[in-house]
Amino acid sequence: FFSMQGLFSKLFDKSGMIAKEQALPGRKTAMAVTNKHYVLGNPIQSPFPAGLQRVVFGTGCFWGTEKGFWRMPGVFSTAVGYCAGFTENATYEEVCSGRTGHNEVVQVVYDPTKISFADLLQQFWQSHDPTQGMGQGNDTGTQYRSGIYCTTPTQKTLAEASKPAYQSALAGSGKKKAITTEILDCPPFYYAEDYHQQYLSKPGSRPYCSAMPTGVSLPPFSEWAPKDLAGEAPKLPDEYWAKHGPRPGCVIREPNQPIQFP
Q: Which residues form the signal peptide (predicted)?
């Protein structure tokens, strides 16, 4: 015997992924956003200049995630949105309901001549705890899961190679929980509402970030990257990470402007 309330809670338990047939239907109209990055001044919607590359990351609440990436040298623009679920052009309220399957994510558009995907992976792994499953810090729900959503085969190969390397590094530091990060070909990315874009840089924003960096570094690229991708090596040196690498609460304390390095 199940009560209707109990059945509803089971169907829409935000700690587990909803089935596609139970997801909200969404809508055909895309979210209207300002096509100019509030800090960097560059477009946040395609088309982007030739030669730039794109990847999407989820590390929990997208406010802090976005700021961590937009400050990196070589990043052209960032935007927050929703992906890896089922609901077309979902709203924030719908995503928070757990009934879309979407993750809160950040689209990163970057210049590979200035910053490598390996650098972005280091920021990703070190800026949150990828073992927390459906949540991050104080935030719980499927929309706060850890994820890498790749737009090229090289990105996916490197992401998949870096995952066991970071798992080993965590184990070496005494952290035994398994990484729960999903690594997928990038599904459709739906822009979040305009007020969420570059939220932490805007006047009156709430200085909030619940990411839980582990304090464990990604091992050197040469230890985990496939040999045929040696040309994808990091461009940011150890000195950068020592000075500007993720720390608990760091995106709240740091300025909004991009890091000038060296």
A: none
Asked if the structure places residue 22 within a domain, the reply is no
Total number of domains in the chain:
1
Type and span of the H or E element at 108: strand 103-110
Task: Give rounded-to-5 percent helix, strand, coil for the chain.
Answer: 30, 15, 50
Examine residue 103 and state whether it is found in any structural domain, yes or no.
yes
Exposure string over 212-223, b if 16+ CB within 10 A, otherwise e: bbbebbbbebee
Q: What's the CA gap between 80 and 194, in Å, rounded?
A: 9
From CA 192, how far away is CA 237, in angstroms rounded?
33
For the domain that residue 116 is a member of, what is the CATH number? 3.30.1060.10
Q: What is the pLDDT along the chain (262 residues), one digit of tens a residue?
A: 333 334 333 445 677 999 999 999 999 999 999 999 999 999 999 999 999 999 999 999 999 999 999 999 999 999 999 999 999 999 999 999 999 999 999 999 999 999 999 999 999 999 999 999 999 999 999 999 999 999 999 999 999 999 999 999 999 999 999 999 999 999 999 999 999 999 999 999 999 999 999 999 999 999 999 999 999 999 999 999 999 999 887 788 899 999 998 8
Active site residue 209: no
Considering 61, 150, 186, 209, which one is annotated as catalytic?
61
Task: Tell me the whole-structure pTM to 2 decimals.
Answer: 0.94
